[in-house]
Amino acid sequence: MKEFVHEWLPQRVVFCTNTSDVQIVKEIRQEEYERVMVIASEFEMDLAQRIAKDLPVVHWFDDVRMHVPVDAIERALEEARRVNADVLVSVGGGSTTGLAKAIALETNLPIIAVPTTYAGSEATNVWGRTADSVKTTGKSSRVLPRVVLYDAALTVSLPVEMSVASGLNGIAHGVDSLWAPNANPFNTVLAIESVGALADGIRKIRQEPDNLEARTDALYGTYLAGVAFAAAGSGMHHKICHVLGGMYDLPHAQTHSVILPYVLAFNSGHIPAIEQRLADVLSAPSALEGLEELRSELSAPRALHDYGFAPDMIPRVVDAVLKAVPENNPRPVTAPDITRLLELASEGGDPRELQTTLERSYGS
Ligand code: NAD
Predict the structure, then answer these.
(1) Does the N terminus or the C terminus of the chain have fewer Cβ atoms within 10 A?
(2) Residue range 160-173, pLDDT digits in tens
(3) CATH T-level topology, domain 160-362
(4) Is 127 helix (H, G, I), strand (E, B) or coil?
């Protein structure tokens, strides 16, 4: 076992089924919070009202948008201060958790996060905000939710297509943490377990969207993947998705679903022992075959051009990605490599074609 450092983030995690309204009252009473500000998008406000019906709510805030725009943060901050909130309860996906984090960053208010997708932001101390089309991210202990309340019943309404894309976003957290800058043996254990749970969960959700056991498996995997990602940092996969999302506003979960197999194909053969563990948990001869089988079984998002990405956008992305990819990625990255990866991802080509190109260029 090599030398390594792992940082565990302090957080209370509650798993329940159909009782989040009761559990959240306990959490609020335990900490003696008296002035709750609820954050939920207009689409998840019904869910939020069900959960928070017995709480001392002083404000319901619903201006939630993707990528946490700065004007929404300013409005939310103004409201939080006006009503003198002493705790934030976020009910929703990564965009909602992200807004709560942006408020906490400025005010140090504690967050109780009630996630309703598989984005996993609740497990990390990473915040993000967007101003003038530029997305900035950072880390702070202030934004780590004190409590995470997972209730599979709240995710049943997440449409199957979104569940699939979001589940693959969760899987991407796990897989990318296998080679991210602070990858370590603890992250690897969490990541492998997370991929198995998420893969099983979303397979069953695709067949039976109301299956609460499957939804719970997916949330369990989501959390483990988020913990692994928080500790390992952003690897090559996240750097590519971050550039694509920031530059062209591509949808978050779908972009992750498309890009992951190409990055796995690219790094393939460079961490063979870990790759074998990934293959085993996916019950496939190789990790890439396992991921490809899963994506085809799920009819997962496959091509960036379906989301408005065009080949002429590639050169700008390549420059930004090259500056961002971690130096310790298992295999060195060049401009032609990223160009080919993006060409294939744009059209939804076979990720093994990337390996063929690499073999032709480098002999491996
Ligand atoms: P999202 O929060 O925008 O939700 C996607 C869609 O699903 C929205 O239309 C939402 O209304 C809908 N939805 C959510 N829950 C639902 C439910 N239970 N039933 C029906 N519809 C529901 O998207 P996301 O993929 O969850 O999160 C993406 C955002 O999270 C991005 O901005 C990304 O950068 C951020 N993120 C941050 C971190 C981090 O560590 N900071 C990690 C992952 C993602």
Answers:
(1) N
(2) 999 999 999 999 99
(3) Dehydroquinate synthase-like, alpha domain (1.20.1090)
(4) strand
